[in-house]
Hints:
A: four-stranded mixed beta sheet; four-stranded antiparallel beta sheet; 51% helix; globular; B: four-stranded antiparallel beta sheet; 12 helices; 49% helix
Amino acid sequence: MTVELDKSRLQIQKAVRDFVKGEFRKEVVEKLLEGNAFPEAIWKKAAELGFIGIHFPEAYGGAGLGVFENALIAEELCRGDSSVGCCLSRAGCGAELLLRFGTESQKQAWLPKVAGGSVLCGAAFTEPGLGNDIARSQTTAVKAGDGWLINGAKSFVVNAGPQAGCYIVLARTAADVPEPARGLSTFLVEADRPGVKVADAGRKLGCRLMPIGEVCFDRVRVPLEHRVGPENRGWEQVAAFLNESRILAAAQALGMAQGAFDRSFAYVKQREQFGTKIIDFQVTRHKVAEMATKIEAARLLTYQAAQSSDAKKGKSDARLSAMAKLYAGRTAVEVGDEAIQLLGGYGYIQDYEVERFFRDAKTIELFDGTRGTQRTAIAEDLVKRGLR
Amino acid sequence: MSTIPIDIEVSEEFRRLHAEVGDLVRTSLEPMSLQVEAEERIPEETVDALRRLGLFGMPVPKAYGGLGLTTVEEMLVYEELTQTNACYRSRIGTSNGIGSMGIVYDGTEEQKRAYLPRIASGEITTAFALTEPDAGSDAANIRTAAGLAGDHWVLNGNKVFITNAGEARLFTVIALTDEKKRARGGVTAFIVERGMPGFTVGAADVKMGLKGSHTHELVFKDCRVPRDNVIGGMEKVGQGFRTAMKVLDKGRLSMGACALGASRKVMQLCCEHLRRKLASGRPKESLQADQFALADMAIQTYAARQMLYHTARLRDQGRTVTQEASMVKVFCTEMASRIADAALDILEEDGCLTANQVEMFLRDVRLYRLYEGTSEIQRIVIARGLVK
């Protein structure tokens, strides 16, 4: 593979950089951070410029481009600002599941709205106390008359706030199955359905502008045609979705690592102590060298995972995706941590931003499966197919 | 559970104090930990409870109203007191350490009588002002200057990141009295009281963690300080850098004890979470990695404990422990960050919620690697001693 970006990708990259320069102004971001407010205005503008759902077909409001271009945008947005960036690049969280497995009318109903910036989409997979073990989901969906009746609670639902349009809900449709994963299906549930209740998750480590909440489904009735894909095949859909979204998470982490690097590198080139620019200390040089090396490696792996997904028409490789998420996520955490150290006491102060990049990076590392979950996925695939 | 390692001999009197500290942590401080985090302040009645135990004057000799604890005993208290929100320790930290020890070590008899009993009772809080915008790690590069004008000194300059400056009534301020000699006889330690003309305390910094403990900027503009307010009197003019460095020595051990206390608390939270995971039906074999991570935490804290108390004992025997104290600080504080990071993986998404505490510890312990000498400065100290 090659990582040279072609002309059209370079144009996209430049367009996002210009957007970041124009819209992610320090005073605007600070204002948002003060109230932990979703960046509504920036989100709308990003959608107008086509930065949301660029990988959706044109018929659904996208640009018909690939996972690669979507990742490239996420990288630049999160580099510009980790907190605003992660909101924008996750605006359609769960929409890819509709894109890959939904019916024509499901896609028509929701994808253009997500891409157009009129609603957010949220993936509702895990449950209180379930952690990464989502195959054991207890939320139930039972056929009742001409619809499904959904009951249960989902936690850590991204975008569970006032802007949410719909949730993709993983629910149990068969109880007596040898493996818990085999009795699950996914459903499209509008956020304003009676019985859908959202409770904000409260204060968190990072990604504080992104609404994350617990969503309760109390006898929520949806039409039969709201099931996404075949019955009892929900687990496969979610697994495929996670394989794709892990590439996006890797790209977000990559951007955060790059953004933390940019800020700390600029600092050490200008800051003097002991009569010397900090960059001229050998230890500092070796630190930035190490950071840059990790970022390049994370970029190669992330781009490769994205390219492979596009080559297989959106069927993302489980191993590559997990590797990209594992490595880029760790890189963002380590680079963010080192960036704080390079700034010394200033690194601990919100105004200098790197502590926030670090917190956002560690939060991203915990979502879409922790490091342990990625390692489990990689090993499972290795055992199945071997290395190469 | 309150524990004093069995190989450490302490008096019955101290054992009682240690148990009381433990009780206070469990019955009062810990239940209020998240409230302190959210409201960004410690209620005054809680500070009173710390006062009643004498915790503002642990190393202050009994003759001056303090507890007169040994280094080992003081570290034991810190380890106990930091198994909850780090801000409680921070509230008493400056009065026990950098804020008052200058007076204990080098103060005149008159200064000791005037200030130490009020410091030890907690009636007045002290702060220590060395760091400046251009003098962080390079402490000898300070610009704040003091000139003698008749019967008083005139101070001009700015100090930053001054812990407890909001509460403090008494400040140990390090200033230049001879621009040419600087650290070699040109730096002097002053006692500055809040309200002295020309001295103002700026707004609190917005930090990554230790939300209930605040740092501020100090501004000295033609601030008039009585002639006798040099720590140790006029004969100690020019000796301030030595005073400052002496003060930092024990501070480094204290940082180690705090990092160890935090690490032990995080471990305990991980054990509880792992038990919950098992109880919820997660297959045991899927939690092997968590158990290994826990084992690593235990290995590290075990090693850290030996280092800390060994060095504290050496110091109590009257030995110089500059290098060892630096080693303790680096090892324990870097360990605390590693442990909090690994702990978040065990908690999975739950880890990112402040309500589950671990993320708060991750943010709080991050400061330990930055203040009272960054890890880099410690390594310089250690290496310098080795090569010599």
